[in-house]
Hints:
The structure is a homodimer of 462-residue chains.
Chain A: H1 2-11, H2 16-27, H3 29-39, H4 46-57, H5 66-82, E1 85-98, E2 102-108, E3 112-114, E4 116-118, E5 130-137, H6 140-145, E6 154-157, H7 171-187, E7 192-196, E8 222-225, H8 227-238, E9 244-249, E10 252-266, E11 271-281, H9 291-310, E12 317-324, H10 332-341, E13 348-353, E14 361-367, H11 370-380, E15 390-393, H12 401-405, E16 410-415, H13 420-423, H14 436-454
Parallel strand pairs in A: 5-6, 6-7, 7-8, 11-12, 11-13, 13-16, 14-15
Antiparallel strand pairs in A: 1-10, 2-3, 2-9, 4-8, 5-9, 10-12, 14-16
Amino acid sequence: MMxxxxxxxxxxxxxxxxxxIDHRSQSNTIADRIIELVTQGEFRGVTYNRLAALVDTIGxxxxxxxxxxxxxxxxxxxxxxxxxxxxxxxxxxxxxxVRGEEHARLIQPRNAKLSMLGLGNSVGTGPNxxxxxxxxxxxxxxxxxxxxxxRNKIVVFNPQCDWQAQPIGCYGPVVGYRVGGASHAAxxxxxxxxxxxxxxxxxxxxxxxxxxxxxxxxxxxxxxxxVEHADMLDRFQQRNQSMEIFLYMEAQTLSDVVGYNLVAxxxxxxxxxxxxxxxxxxxxxxxxxxxxxxxxGAAISWTVLSLIHALNIRAxxxxxxxxxxxxxxxxxxxxxxxxxHQNEVPNMSIVMESDLGVFHPQGLxxxxxxxxxxxxxxxxxxxxxxNATQVVSGGGGEDISKWMxxxxxxxxLLNDNWDxxxxxxxxxxxxxxxxSTDVDLAAAVWTVYAFSIADLxxxxxx
Amino acid sequence: MMxxxxxxxxxxxxxxxxxxIDHRSQSNTIADRIIELVTQGEFRGVTYNRLAALVDTIGxxxxxxxxxxxxxxxxxxxxxxxxxxxxxxxxxxxxxxVRGEEHARLIQPRNAKLSMLGLGNSVGTGPNxxxxxxxxxxxxxxxxxxxxxxRNKIVVFNPQCDWQAQPIGCYGPVVGYRVGGASHAAxxxxxxxxxxxxxxxxxxxxxxxxxxxxxxxxxxxxxxxxVEHADMLDRFQQRNQSMEIFLYMEAQTLSDVVGYNLVAxxxxxxxxxxxxxxxxxxxxxxxxxxxxxxxxGAAISWTVLSLIHALNIRAxxxxxxxxxxxxxxxxxxxxxxxxxHQNEVPNMSIVMESDLGVFHPQGLxxxxxxxxxxxxxxxxxxxxxxNATQVVSGGGGEDISKWMxxxxxxxxLLNDNWDxxxxxxxxxxxxxxxxSTDVDLAAAVWTVYAFSIADLxxxxxx
Lengths: 462, 462
């Protein structure tokens, strides 16, 4: 460890060529030991297998659901047995939305089951369901132009985006219809809102996610449709075939419940009150297994501590792993953690969250001052052997955003996540999506950064 | 048309270089007119749009179901309105299996819905369902070795194949577990059989298909599981986590009903009793839309006649389009058609069936004597402008196999169908899978071959 400290820091002031020389000669000892342990040593496959056991045995972990508490207990016990420092939970208050039974049927022009998933926060339809004709629009502008036609109808939002060209970039422009569609439709007198799944590709798989009501307008039920069924309804309208849909949803929001952020650490050797925070969220949607979103991010963050603990090393600073509660309803656990811990802002060197996949890693997304990014770029050379040396600007995460707003540098895992939105928030979010070798590499990247930043002479410049 | 006849035949006796010259100079007039009409003229998009209207409005078309008859009527009316020759249906006797309600739940180690689809021909579970512990095997050999463990259990077949390396080739080795798994399991005293979906990739999408009973053993219910759920059960077993599943299926086989092969023609000018047969099957599974399997093959076969009719041309021989009934239960419509028409074997120049996708076409799969394949290869030059000139050995189709067994040359569409088994027999088989431009090109290939072969001086050598 001392070798690491002594040799890493001089690197930061030399040219990139001499960095390269130093790197190859001595300074990479600990980074190489981390990489070797997780890619070829006894931790090979451990992260994937732990995650598979968790998500197979506990299943998905919806905010407010007992399964989320079970998962916290499961991981907490494993962390204690492993001998990590300061393993504990911190209570947070979280919402408790329940899906209940739900289904949708096309009644006209033919009778067929529609592939749907109710959206988080949505109200239900009442026991008799809602049967109504349909108006399909492709944008809020089109809805505004046809607002009069929406009254007493079910509005279907079918926003278009070239997902093949922008498998990640389309999510932003499209997700607004999932989140805000219901209130836009309610403003025009609609009875319910259905939105095309925010999915890069589909095998008739609906994708859920959170929605929000504008309290100016009546709360109407909101669900997503599979891409295929949204397009079919769009074609019916283009052909002037009249449509009617029956929608039934028991969804409701119960009283808030107590949830838990799970915390574990490897304490710093000389500056234990200064911290590097690595994280992912343990809650997920209630379909699939929540292996991708965000079991994988949680799992590699846990593995950061496991590897450092197994190597019996300590950085100067404390490395803290937080597995968040209830990210999916808007960073609930993360925001409350910040409120409780904001006195640590001056001592928090960096906040890291992995929540966009643990596919083959390419490096790090980093948001902070150029001087800090320069240091991160220097550290990236330690990942040359696994070809994960990219550092790009951007990144962050829902649960760490408050810290970043207060000036703490933030980072997320840069990985080959082009296929992320094929599975995200759908029944397809299972451990099958992930690859054990890539998960190991992702854990290596995450650990090398966490350790190296925790072991710098100073916290990152801000 | 006469230009076509005069100029095409000399090509067949000259070298490939002079073929090329002839081809570029004069003989391709009709082929070029066909290609232009369907890729740039008034038939551009028509095949896709007709198919979309059919599968949106009628939906899937399970053998024995009223929707299949509705589809036959829909297409028949359109063909009559279009003015095709000899539009008629021919009755066949078809099985009538019904799915009914069905579901499966994992009871232990946790309670979760399993993604399943009952298999065609399967019996049901009875009104109380079947609840039993689980044995997972990866092969018939493993089942035989563990036969004693299967008694009173639900057997899960989880055959492994590298679908990424062999996205088409894996189907054959794997589908045997779907077809024959139940009787193998019943032989060992199992109560039900579940098989991993024969799917190249999955978003938790189960794939159905036909199964068959060996009447030596009790008939036990048979269903498919999604790839993800089959793998999860496999992992539970590897971890020695005990499993229990509840399976409920109302599936049953009712009395045979009358079905219809739909036939239309463009009569030959000089040899109307000699025939080129183009075909696809109109029935499908009862999930999704049956757009890929085999709406697309049926649609391009119909378009062959539409294009020739629209161009107001006739080949020497009759071109006959047959849209088969009930291929999915084992070529039922095709076999009965052969029985009724086998006296036409001597006059049938070629039988063509497209039933493996209408993705971007590359050419033709052909099965026949080398002299015939040489002629087909010569015709392929007419498709140079759309780069679909490959001719490879093989091909055929379930519904035309009897003709081929009696020596008639057979062909199928060679196309870029690597993704076929992601959608096949699943809810993902919708018009979204297809691309209008590629469907037009596929129709062009199909039509140029049908016309050219029908317009040769003789039927293809056999």
